[in-house]
Amino acid sequence: RIYPLMRVTLTTSDGASVTVSRQLTKHSGFIEKAITDMAVDDNAVPLSAVAVDVDDATLKLVIEWLTEHRDDALPYPEKTDEERRADDIPAWDQAFVQKWDTKEDQQQTLYAVITAADKLDIKGLLDMTCKTLANKINGKTVEEMREILQLECDFTEEELAEIRKENAWCEN
Amino acid sequence: MVIFSLPDVFLRSVMRTMRIKDRLRLRLVSRAFEELVADSHAGYFEQGHVYQDPVKRGFNIRPYQKTIEIRIGDGKCNYVRLARAEEQECFLHLRHSLFSGITLEKFEIDLDDNLTPDLEFYQRLTEKFKIRELHFDVDSKTQLEKSLQLVADFHNELSQ
Predict the structure, then answer these.
(1) Residue B4 domain flag
(2) ipTM greater than 0.90, yes or no?
(3) Chain B environment of A170 (Cβ under 8 Å)
(4) Model confidence over B50-72: pLDDT tens digits?
(5) CA–CA dist B129, B131 (Å, integer)
């Protein structure tokens, strides 16, 4: 049973704290387990404190996403073998991620949210960020992929030529 | 933060959504990506096939050419020459550099009587394939026997 009125105080890795409804935190496997482990009586204790290994700025983004998705059904549906679509991100989520584009380093923000979603065990957010990253890469050239992923080419010219030669089997 | 500091399970989920053509390009991005491509599951695709005789399938191939068409998901290899062992090894090397496993709804295989490439090629090509429907197009008793042998091999691999 979840008590929507119950409040949970989350303490971030950089010392900030934020109090949110249990209706939001129920989507986080990590926070739910922490509350369960405290063995508190939901009726008697209206406030629980949980330390999370996520910084304040990232946690704010996570809470924004959780607020929008507070009524999503739980448990989050398990992925089937057939699922490979990445183009079914809800409109609100797309706009949510687009907002990061105005930030100086949107890729770092995406990585921070992915890491937070993993630490807090928020399956819906992990799924959405997985599709977002996949969509950024899909159909791009090698140079564009390196730019998006912020990676340097660490192959020699000879090694690149060898891989291109192997790939040629599939690109004729 | 770099992409390879993200959780491994997350990176593998991303890789399951990549098309084969993207996997080919990702191999060229960096050494770490080359390894991730080879060591990750390609996810689910509708179909794949090995056509021994593209002319029979309506493809415009000059008759003196002995070529094979291989398709795995969206990765299509036209006019593949696999008569020599070195050619087969090169092709299998690419296949194993592209993914560690794949799920296909339907996979079609043509065999010819000369059995070039041989059964071992097909066994290695389809290693770690999960195929829902396996189709064979056979014109002779020899081809039927070889097809049944491949089906038996699939069953053996699945049961292991």
Answers:
(1) no
(2) no
(3) 20-21, 24, 75-77, 94, 98
(4) 987 666 666 665 555 567 888 99
(5) 6
